[in-house]
Structure formats: C-alpha cells, structure tokens
Write a structure and sequence with these properties.
Elements: H1 2-12, E1 20-30, E2 33-39, E3 51-54, E4 58-64, E5 73-75, E6 80-81, E7 91-97, E8 104-109, H2 112-117, E9 120-126, H3 133-144, H4 170-180, H5 190-199, H6 228-239, H7 245-249, H8 271-299
Length: 300
Amino acid sequence: MFLAVLLAACGGGRADPPSTKEYVLTTALENGTPVFLGVGDEINGVVNPELSAEAGQTITITLVNGGDGEHQVVISGIKARSSIVDEKGESASVTFKVPESLAEMEYMDGNPAYEALGMRGVLKIQKPPAMSSTQKLAMTAFQKGGCAACHTIPGVPGAVGMIGPDLSEIGTVVQTQLDKGEYTGEAKTKEEYLLEAIQSPDAFISPACSLGPCPKGTMPSMAALLNPEELNAAVKYLSVLPDGLDALLTESGTDESEAAALTGEPPELTDEEFAWAKQTSSSGARAVMGRFAKARRGRR
C-alpha cells in the first residue's frame, strides 16, 4: 500500500481524485405542504435548502423518509436518482459528479405529485478559481521535485505524504525556529530558510519526521531540477502557509493567459523529469523505511 501511494504521488496517477461532499435531506410537512428539510451543518432545518458544490466534484445526497408516502430524490439534467424510500426512517442515497458545463441544477422528488407541491430545490455549481502565475509555477516545482510523495502541502493535489515533515504550517514553524535560534543553517529570514531547505536540505535536520528527527540525506537537493522562477514560486508558496494562501491564490496581476483552471491535474513532466522525480522520492522513502525497520528491530 505504501508503494502504491508513493508511485501515485510521484506521477503514476496524473489526476487527483475529486473530493466528496455529502448532504442529508429528510421529507417533512411545512404548513401542510410537503418539503425537503436540510439535516446537519449549514442547511440544518432549512426548507428546500440551496446546496452547493464545485464543478467536477463528487457529491452525495442522502434522503431520509420522515413520514408517510413514497419519496425519491432526482437530480435534473444528468439522470441521477436515488432508490425509493417508502417507510419512515428509511434512507437512500444518490452519488454523482457535478457537471462542469452548468451553473446550477435542481433536485426534486421523483414523485411528480410531490414535486408539483414544492418538493424541489437548487444545487449551485461553483467554478474553481484560476491559478495565479505564482501558484502555477509552484505547482510545477512541487511536481518536478516529487514533493507530494513525502510531504503534506495544502492546495497541492495529492500532496498528503507522510515521509517528510508536514508543511501545512511551514511558514509559522520556520519563523518560530528562526526566532528561537534553533535553525542551524545560514539563513536569516523565512524565505532564505525555505530556499536553503530546497537547495541544501541537510543544512538543518527537521525534528518532525514520523519517528522523530528526519534522517540525514532523506531529501536530495532540488536546485538542479528547478529554474529560478520555479524555485522562487515554491518559496513564496510555502512562506505564506498556513494563513496567507488565499491571498496568494488570488494575487493581483494574474496573467489570465497563463492561469490554469484548478482541476486537480498537475503539470506534465518530460520523461527525464519524471524519472528524476521518481528516483528522488524513492530514495527518500527507502531511507525512512530503513529507519522504521531499524526501530522495529530495536523494540524486539
């Protein structure tokens, strides 16, 4: 399983699986009229609530029969529908991929009589934001370096690796280490620290790997693979985590001709770049797995 995840993150699977969102509806009477009633979260208790999802996202709507009658939730335009529920407390679900070509869809009761009485609502479809030029370059850098295989990086498709440190709050972590004098490299600022970490990873051994401090040599230098623009974009992306990512993704001056729709598909690599990234990530994995084996033998 570990190997499968590693290979997928290194580029064996190019598209990140869509996220899944779930809504729960129950049937009810509102002033004597049959309606859908939202259950949980922001739609709790809302009559025929407005639902929302991103284009291309997978969504599940679960219908619970709150009383008498036969009910079924139907999604307009895509021929998706749940099975029929005809007993109180019985539930059924429908799961579907939200089309990218529509702005909204309707959900309704499959029984035309109930639909006519008002059992229907709207599903708003949100378009994902376009990538800024900085984000696009950062994504290319992370993909070239095989970073997703080892690190968790917010906003980067597939970057849920557990070999190296979690980078979700790396901007804050770096500043804290610098302020406390814990950093053993030559960098003096947050940006210099991140640049040095990419160019000379062993300048500072992070204490945050799975079994404690990361083994020396786990991460090779990425400098040879990245051009200066990609390197600077990766540093800028990481430096604003965790709180400044939204501002970066919507930075002013985005060149729309270069902006890419955030579909979850990482930039394509040449065969040579992919082979390098795969080898790089695999060597890091072997180092950590060897440490796991050593620790396991020590516990016996």
